[in-house]
């Protein structure tokens, strides 16, 4: 049985779903980012809309609530001229005892073209992609602690924009990597882009076990880990984790791992600071850094729209080409 | 005072609201289904959207929650290029003590073109249609146990597609007919289409009293009722009814009335199985039948979009023609 | 530091935000109303939609719930062909501890073009307009007891339509002026339009202290205040105020200040009766007046769409012209 990495590509290696950054080739990622760059420049125009997906139906399937991510997908879909339907899972037929499988089959029958799936369980978007009819594209908008591929792609887009090709860069990821789908997807993406130096900075309790296999070097002391890096990626501290005793207090975290101006000076002088948002000021990041010239956090947000447009356009276009071939 | 059947037609017999299938002529239903067939084939095109209702405002007035039905109306409106406004009745002015009448007058003043009305009280869409200004079309999306005319029309469309003209068919409806607006609307629709053999299959407690007047034959034993039919329509078991003691347990219901492969063999060999959804697997229908070749349940969903497009397009077009005449 | 009145105009005196009617010139208001008149006549056309804001993104930021006002802004945005994103503040990142400032910066980065802001705190839209990047227009959809400028503009539009230039009219405002943003914004608007006779009718506990400074004459007895006026503006009785003991009972209020046919006869014979809605029948207004020929309450609703279209079109157009100048 094929896994997500195989399922998301068609026979010709084109992207028909986006489930994970794992297994994506440098060429495919580069082509996605080039497309996103194009959409990004169009965003500066008076009319930000292109008719690429006119008449297509995008369905938001958010089993886990996330206003921000849903909003960026909504805006991306609108700017491609697609129609958007949001299914409120809590009040939908799922709550009337219908199986997920039957809900999906119904949405298919309504001739949806793309599902944006967010789920608290890792693997849910893959489960869905594996069961939908061939003509529907599935985009993973975050599944459990597993993957968040559009976030990783917008991170790569931002890195490339500010620092050039990742195959020449040192990237440090700081914080709770163990529970972070953002970190996991970014690491796979950076590896695909042949990034030679990926570092993880966190206390031992917040580091996953497989980092060495992924070629990631680990650091417990932030001062060591930041030395000479080009890119710093801060992760959001999930407060729920602290309750579980896995994390120190916010104050303690900031003292040990918070990004301050002093610590920033340990990196290269033109290093950039990234964060998937929403930021916790005074926890992961000091105000001076968040509002300083090296932070590119808001630029990540802008790139997020362009990357999601590129992913939607590319997956639907693969599905359409494949549908023609099946005729 | 005219009833729903009269109110929904203008002087020339054209459809200006859709409140009930009762009193619709064979000609009018045929014309609606022909229009829906046209929209259905357009759904296979890369661009599924037509500019027919561009600039029109469709208002969803869902006094009773129904994600699925609302979604199908939303998609239908989008594919006609209309704008959709959904009024959350729970947080709207109605909760500020405004009368329904005043809420309607306000929506009229915002120049809405069509109201999609779902209400737990039978007759509510008629009440509304009777009070709105002439230029607004009202479509009943289900009112109490009274009517669900778009469901009946999509059922007729599905029957016609698979089995041809209903004037030649035997149709069996199975389950809680007493509380079912779906059954009631379908029976009126089948009668209008001159269906010669309509059967109701249920225990006595779940049969309405007026079936004989409607020309429907009743059966308590499913084995008898299914004999030689062309079309089987299963109704959804409303779990709320069971609490009221009107229904046996789910297990008991399935044993007595569940659609199994064995029972399906009693019908004609090319009989189709329909269900308004969402289905309860193992209650009204066995997995083997739900996923088998004779089930056309998902095709009903696809037809539902096309039928709702046809109803919206036709009612608004009548309203527009009438408005021109009033000039 | 400039206040709302200065901040909402650019150097050339054009409207780049709409925060308050205070300080708007007669010329600017007239130009807004003329634009709204144009949109209003377009609403009678079969296609009510104009492509003026195609590809623009309007974000609803409703910190205080108001289905009706949000619906009118939604419809106005759709009729200008803009895309609308509604941020559910209760479930958004704000609830994850993100500061309002950071939420705004994120929406900016998504290249929103206009924020529609409703907030229970007076001054919130000004706070936001003061902090957003220059290219985003902010429209105040009601802030605390401070201002509700689009309501005032639609009131002025309705007055002008029925009674001509306000510089020739007597206008009486009846009810809880003390807690009413509607009254405050309308008084500023009427003064800008050089209305020579503005009257406030209410018990002393419901009158603000600064009416004399605003040139408004106060009346405690409605019979005196209505004498010979051209326009009567009723305010909605906020039931929450009664709980605080500031208002008499509903029955008492109606007895003392309710608009009855008898009282209406005290005004000019062609006087109009206005109300921002939703109306409380039998509290502020008798049924006979609400449904009578002198009430123009529903016409206010229709004008509300046109005025909001004009405000959105004009502010975004100023922002675009300014952006070109900054190039």
- Counted by DSSP, the helix tally of chain A is 13
Q: CA-to-CA gap between the ends of chain A?
A: 26 Å
Describe the biggest sheet of chain A? Answer: 5 strands, parallel
What general outline of chain A do the C-alpha atoms trace? globular
Number of strands of chain A: 9
Spell the H/E element sequence of chain A. HHEHEHEHEHEHEEHEHHHEHH
Beta-strand residue percentage of chain A: 5-15%
Order of the strands making up the biggest sheet of chain A: 7-6-5-8-9
How would you classify the quaternary structure? homotrimer
Largest interface: A-B, 24 and 26 residues
Helix content of chain A: 40-55%
CATH architecture of the largest domain in chain A: 3-Layer(aba) Sandwich
CATH class of the largest domain in chain A: Alpha Beta
Low-confidence stretches of chain A: none
Task: Write the CATH fold name of the largest domain in chain A.
Answer: Rossmann fold
Rounded to the nearest angstrom, the radius of gyration of chain A is 20 Å
Structural class of chain A: alpha/beta
pLDDT averaged over residues of chain A: 92
CATH superfamily of the largest domain in chain A: Aspartate/ornithine carbamoyltransferase
The total number of structural domains of chain A is: 2
